[in-house]
Design a protein that fits this description.
Shape: elongated
Radius of gyration: 18 Å
Number of helices: 4
Order of helices and strands: EEEEEEEEEEEHHHH
Strand order of the largest sheet: 2-1-11-10-7-8
CATH architecture of the largest domain: Sandwich
Keywords: Phosphoprotein
Protein name: FHA domain-containing protein
Organism: Halostreptopolyspora alba
Number of domains: 2
CATH class of the largest domain: Mainly Beta
Mean pLDDT: 81
Low-confidence stretches: 102-109, 192-201
GO molecular function, one term: DNA binding
Length: 201
């Protein structure tokens, strides 16, 4: 087959990546549908840039997206990489054979300088997804404001600066993309929630 493709391990189906953006998920609208219950309705995007392809995780579930067993937020794919969307495994093919350095580890040095308060905001943002709760979306500005005992307006200002620092473009899922980037860079670690923070919704 000419051009990049994904082979679904369970079924053996070959899925060509012809479009600039190919969506992956369990939902009916996904370009590549994976029936595994660990896969989100809209789980990830595969983006073509010339002969290259990179994968972008769109959710913040603990099931996440992994490349060769390592959790990622965004990563350039190489020939033969194993990409796991939740528990569903796929193998890449048709990619150029050359030396590229896609590891998230190499991007750790690219983490921007953060103030103590910005780090507090990021920790609060990511806390729901890193806890053992079933709640998998990042915290809202209101949640963060309550957590840090500051105004919602102040939190929104911090988030705007953080979007700029981490170069998160405007658009849907902006908080999720920021949280994914922060977790992938290892800036925020999983932590247990104190018992008094389990609130009835």
């Amino acid at each position: 087959m000419d051009g990049p493709y994904l082979r679904v391990e369970e079924s053996g189906d070959i899925m060509p990546l012809n479009a600039e953006v190919t969506t992956v998920g369990r939902g009916n609208g996904a370009d590549i549908q994976l029936g595994d219950s660990s896969v989100s309705q809209l789980h990830a995007e595969l983006v073509r840039r010339g002969p290259y392809v990179y994968v972008v995780d769109l959710g913040l579930s603990r099931n996440g997206t992994r490349v060769n067993g390592r959790p990622i937020a965004r990563r350039v794919l190489d020939e033969g990489d194993i990409v796991s969307f939740g528990a569903a495994r796929c193998k890449t093919g048709g990619l150029p054979q050359e030396e590229i350095t896609p590891d998230v580890e190499l991007r750790r040095g690219a983490a921007p300088e953060l103030t103590r308060r910005e780090l507090d905001v990021l920790t609060s943002l990511c806390r729901p997804a890193l806890s053992d709760e079933a709640f998998v979306s990042p915290a809202t500005a209101r949640d963060i404001a309550e957590d840090l005992v500051v105004t919602e307006a102040a939190v929104k200002q911090h988030l705007l600066r953080l979007y700029q620092k981490f170069r998160v473009p405007e658009g849907a899922n902006r908080r999720t993309r920021l949280a994914n980037e922060v977790v992938a860079l290892g800036l925020v670690r999983p932590m247990p929630l104190p018992s008094h923070e389990y609130k009835a919704s």
